[in-house]
Specification:
alpha+beta, 22% helix, binds zinc ion, Peptide Deformylase, 32% strand, five-stranded antiparallel β-sheet
Length: 174
Amino acid sequence: MTTREIVTLPDSVLRLKARKVLAVDDEVRRLIDDMIETMRIAPGVGLAAPQVGDSRRVIVVEYAEPPEQEGEQVRSPKLYVLVNPEIVRHGQDLVTGVEGCLSVPGLIGQVERYDAATVKGLNRQGQSVRIKAAGWLARIFQHEIDHLDGTLFIDRASEVWQGEEKDIESIAAD
Ligand code: ZN
């Protein structure tokens, strides 16, 4: 695995509509592995291929669901790899949360997202998978899939201000 450089604004690759992946082959798996490594080192909870300068429809997400009740053990993070991801269903309610982005350093903003989303795509082996996500995980998927269409959180944000991406989890927990 190799870490790839994270591209930031105003790089135009972030604004392209990414291409569909035709076959999940070894070359795509190499991209996936590099994206996982890059996301972990950044660190971030998700990464889309355009963020490493590759305009193809691939996302990786790694996130630990918060404990459902107080006193419950902290859950270990779960890794999701999705090629050609699509939101096939979403909740009716919109929720506001604070987001940042590794490609938009120094800014965070308040963004409305669906409270739940079902995402369909292909896994690392090219098999079809479907993930039902709610809460913060649903937000991460919506943010990453937006990247594949050239959309950044600042386009959707009702308010944007100076802040660091590392501050977000604590804001989200407020
Ligand atoms: Zn982002």
